[in-house]
Amino acid sequence: MTCLPATSTPKKLGLVIDLDVCVGCHACVVSCKEWNTGGYGAALSDQDPYGADVSGTFLNRVHSFEVVPEGGEIVAERGQARLVHFPKSCLHCEDAPCVTVCPTGASYKRADDGIVLVDEDMCIGCGLCAWACAYGAREMDLAAGVMKKCTLCVDRIYNETLDEIDRVPSCVRTCPTNARHFGDFADPNSNVSIMVAERGGYDLMPEQGTRPVNKYLPPRPRTALGSAPTLPQEDTSDATGFFGWVDKMLDRI
Amino acid sequence: MYPALSIIFFTSASGLGYGLAAVLGLGLLDPQALATKLAHVLALCLIGGGLLSSTLHLHNPQRAWRALSQWRSSWLSREGVMAIATFVPLTINAAATVFYGKHLLLVGLLGTLGAAVTVYCTAMIYASLKSVQAWHTRLTPICYLLFAAAGGSLAGALVAASGNAHSVVLMVMALVFLVPAWAAKWQWRKNLREAVPLSTPESATGLGGLGKVRLFESPHFNDNYLTREMGFRVARKHADKLFVIAIIAGGVVPAFLVLVALAAGHAIWAPIALGLALLFHALGVLTERWLFFAEARHAVMNYYSR
């Protein structure tokens, strides 16, 4: 049923993405595609994979933005310019418009943990849910003709055949800089809730009224190079023997 | 937004079909005339053809029946349910007219009501999407309803004139609907061009506090499903010209031709003028519908600096 759960879900599983830490390596993009092309539902197809016009279905993409400070025309001209790498996948919104527009009941938001999923056997591939999503989190798979989206690796996080350390979404497990974190936002003491509270985690496009579960942590203020402390003079007064002699000789030169 | 031909044809054809069906349901036309009988069949063909065309953009059309299930939340589902429900009075009335030369007023009025509700549902599919700011307005269903009513009145007047009846009521109705239809469309497009964007690259990334945000590197070199579906750009170059063409073809010329037909009375010029008026109106609406999709900007393009 494509009506949203009537009450707030007891668990709100989602991701925190730390924009201060992400280096834009696209490892999460690759690992997401690798896991999800063989897991839940239809494979993530590519079109013209070895040709010039290659494109394909991805559930997670990394954009890179340049942020030009006020008054600047080009990056780094004035103030502290930033290059921010920006991973983006489904935000598992509480008021998910992609779910309510679905005419077939293929899209749904799970009442127990809030994960937004597509039942691909019911999807007619009309594409309306992708239109309804302001974040571009849904992509039509052109080979299977069904809508694909981030499942929060629902086939990993509850999978007891995996080691406990692996029971997180593939993107989180693979991130080499720990820019992605998985947890329950309904629990105020969870790792993700604490991170959001401490770092000022925020919603993307709050004006769209979708109430995303996933949160983004802003880049930390940058320290200017000039204000970095200089290294203290090293104290070598306790050097003895050969190294003491070398130290004295080099000081004289 | 990508202007898919199947959807443009669907909304235009079914709009005209429902408009004609709604006018036929009012019972203003002589049910014994051959032209009226043909008009009933034509309306059903336009509606059916439009609905079939709308299934062309589905990637798994064999499951299309499932789209009738979620009427509680989805306007697309409501449209499907209403379209099928409306077929019942439309088909009964068409059969009564074609085979018995009789108009069933109550069934006809039910058909008129159903046609209006179905067109409203079609428009609400688009108007309910907050992610496409230009569509997310009450003017969207108003435009769809007025265009359907104007097209239906024009077609009805043509049917009357073809049966050698001079229907002043229908011609006046056509004028009465044409003017507000294009006035509403004018305001709709003014909003599209002048409204402050609801979402910006700054709100999309949350980085507005640091400065102005623009795309440095897109996720992939080539276009993807999102940029193809939501990042259509061809229209903007000629959009103003196309809009003027749409207004002239869909509004000014038909209105003038209706006046000609009014003046012509029972002369042979009346059906010719009305036939041309309908043809021009259909071309104007097709152009308008193309712009409706092509000019609308989707919020996700804030991530692609388009």
From TrEMBL, chain A:
Domain 4Fe-4S ferredoxin-type: 13-43, 81-112, 114-143
PROSITE patterns attached to this UniProt entry: 4FE4S_FER_2
InterPro entries: 4Fe4S_Fe-S-bd, ET_IronSulfur_Cluster-Binding
Tagged with keyword Iron-sulfur: yes
UniProt KW keywords: 4Fe-4S, Iron, Iron-sulfur, Metal-binding
Pfam families: Fer4_11
Gene3D superfamilies registered for this protein in UniProt: 3.30.70.20
Spans annotated as Disordered: 210-236
GO molecular function, one term: 4 iron, 4 sulfur cluster binding
Xref: PANTHER family: PROTEIN NRFC, PROTEIN NRFC HOMOLOG
Name the record gives this protein: Fe-S-cluster-containing dehydrogenase component
TrEMBL record, chain B:
Source domain of life: Bacteria
GO CC terms, sorted: dimethyl sulfoxide reductase complex; plasma membrane
Molecular function GO labels: dimethyl sulfoxide reductase activity
Keyword Kinase: no
Segments traversing the membrane: 37-59, 80-100, 106-129, 141-161, 167-184, 242-262, 268-287
Key words, A-Z: Membrane, Transmembrane, Transmembrane helix
Pfam families associated with the record: DmsC
Example of a GO biological process term: anaerobic electron transport chain
Official protein name in the record: DMSO reductase anchor subunit
Organism whose genome encodes this protein: Aquamicrobium aerolatum DSM 21857
